[in-house]
Amino acid sequence: MRPKQVHNWSYSKNSNGYIAIFDKHLFKELTDVPEQAYFDLSAKNTAVLQPTFEHLIQESKHTDQLSQKTILQGISYILLQLKRLAQEAPQNNTFPSKDLLKFSKLVAQNLGKNLSVAHYAAQLHITVDKLNHICKQHYAQSPKTIILEKKITEAKRLLYFTDLSVKEIAFRLGFEDSSYFSRIFKQKTSLSPTQFKST
C-alpha cells in the first residue's frame, strides 16, 4: 500500500500471517522491494520465510544496536526472497505498465489541482486514448474515475486523521464548491463527509 492510504482488512476466522509496516526513512534504505502489488506464496515458500519473521519478532524485543542491524538485514533478506519469488511466479506476467504506475504517481502528487486527463497524458507522452486503454485494461476504470477515486481516498484520510473542516478538505482537493464535493463523496461512500468523520 502507498503511504497514508486509507485501508481496511477483513479477516476470516482462520487467518494468520504477518504485516510489515515500514517507516519512510527505513524504506529509503531498502532497494529490493518487489514491484508487484501482490502475489501468492506456495506452502513451501511460506515455510521458508516464516522462521525469518519469527526471528525478527524475537529480535525486536532486544534494544541494542545489534538488534537494529539484525532486523534491517532480516527485512532485506525477506524482501530479496519475495522479489525472487515474484519474478518466478507465472501469474505475475500481466502487471500494470510503467505508464500506468507513473500516472498513478502523478495523480497522487496533484490531488489539489483540477488537471485534465489530457494533461496527464501529455505528461506521460502518450495519447488520451492510450491512457484510457491502459486504465481500463488494468483497473476497469477510466482515468477520470481513477483521479476521482484517489481524491475520495485522500478525503477519507483527511476526515479521519485531521481536524480540517469539510470546506477546507474540499478546497485542498481542488473542489471549488464544497457542496459538490459532499455530493460526490456521498455518491462514492454512501455517507456524507460529516457522517464519515463521526463514524
From TrEMBL:
The keyword Nucleus does not apply. The keyword Coiled coil does not apply. SUPFAM superfamilies: Homeodomain-like (SSF46689). Keywords: DNA-binding, Transcription, Transcription regulation. InterPro entries: Homeodomain-like_sf, HTH_AraC, HTH_AraC-typ_CS, Tscrpt_reg_AraC-type_HTH. Pfam families: HTH_18. It comes from the Bacteria. Residues 101-199 form the HTH araC/xylS-type domain. GO terms for molecular function: DNA-binding transcription factor activity; sequence-specific DNA binding. This is Transcriptional regulatory protein, AraC-type. It comes from Zunongwangia profunda (strain DSM 18752 / CCTCC AB 206139 / SM-A87).
